[in-house]
């Protein structure tokens, strides 16, 4: 290989690396994710590193829910968005990393997928009214054991104690 051929080959490799680096930069910048609740009342956005960038709540998101339930929904959406951002970062890194140790490191830290909630059917109104109309039966009284007889342990060892001062 002549020096000119080597230089042309090297410049081609450099151009390829620059192109991949630019694709990675663009992919990384676009890796942030926004997710919304099924009813659209809550939106959570995260940056490619998983940090919170957006939180939108409609007025209807605040009605009919306890603070704990609202916080739980927000955190669930934030985890879902963080996982989506991490998957996007891994996809952006794939052209650079291939099947390398670096790629395994990136994909090894993907957050687990959120399990889908099984929504339990709410009992019918008639059933709930019936349940509230029933008199509540008190719990049974606790079982009481008979008292123990008093113990006199002094006689077990006699009067020969080594703790007595003479």
From TrEMBL:
It comes from the Bacteria. It holds the Pfam family YbaB_DNA_bd. One of its GO terms (molecular function) is DNA binding. Residues 123-135 have a biased composition (Basic and acidic residues). Residues 109-166 are annotated as: Disordered. This is YbaB/EbfC DNA-binding family protein.
């Amino acid at each position: 290989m002549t020096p000119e051929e080597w230089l042309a080959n090297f410049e081609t490799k450099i151009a390829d690396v620059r192109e991949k680096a630019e694709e990675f930069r663009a992919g990384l910048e676009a890796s942030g994710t926004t997710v919304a609740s099924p009813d659209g009342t809550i939106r959570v956005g995260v940056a490619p590193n998983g940090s919170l960038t957006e939180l939108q709540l409609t007025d209807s998101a605040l009605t009919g829910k306890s603070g704990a339930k609202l916080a739980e929904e927000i955190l669930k959406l934030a985890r879902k968005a963080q996982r989506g951002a991490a998957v996007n970062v891994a996809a952006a890194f794939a052209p650079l990393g291939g099947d390398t140790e670096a790629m395994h490191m990136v994909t090894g830290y993907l957050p687990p997928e959120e399990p889908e909630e099984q929504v339990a059917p709410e009992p019918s109104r008639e059933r709930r009214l019936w349940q509230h109309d029933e008199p509540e039966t008190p719990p049974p009284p606790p079982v009481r054991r008979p008292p123990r007889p008093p113990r006199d342990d002094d006689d077990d060892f006699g009067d020969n104690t080594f703790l007595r001062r003479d």
